[in-house]
Amino acid sequence: MEESGVQLLCFELCGEKFAFNLDYLVEIVRIQAGEITPWYSPVPIIRGKWNYRGQTLCVIDMREFFGLETPAVTRMQEAGTYDLEQERGTKSILVVMIQNRLFGMLTDRVLQMQPLIQYYEYPALISTLPRRYFAGISMREAELVLLLAIEDFVRDYEWETLSQELTASVESSLASVA
Predict the structure, then answer these.
(1) In what residue span(s) does the CheW-like domain sit (predicted)?
(2) 149 close to 164: Cβ distance less than 8 angstroms
């Protein structure tokens, strides 16, 4: 990611700051958590489906995948007292275009759009997650912001699998209605 002329969309998830190149953003939509249908896809970063203007989009939820669930939430889940709907409430979904396909990206809060001023390579040993998800690190108001490489979130072979799963899911829904 080059610094010159790049605009970032900064957002927050579980108190952590993230950003990506604004060129990938299509729209920001406020929704209720109940509008997302939980769906455990074969692609680990996809955790739901959502109806966007009559089209079913896969929802990228980085909480569990990036290990952002808090220990308190994990304890409540184990005790059976955790209410996902209440915890998540109203959220922002970032409709993004990844490799000419629309996806919804779940966030807690959109912070701002800002130019990329400082850019640092993503350190190789900072995470156990595949490096493909991160473009680097930047700063926002004296805080570190992880720059996401969302163009690499879903690869072509993963999209083929997702597409087949979505088609099968729609067909089974139609069959149960008939």
Answers:
(1) 5-159
(2) no
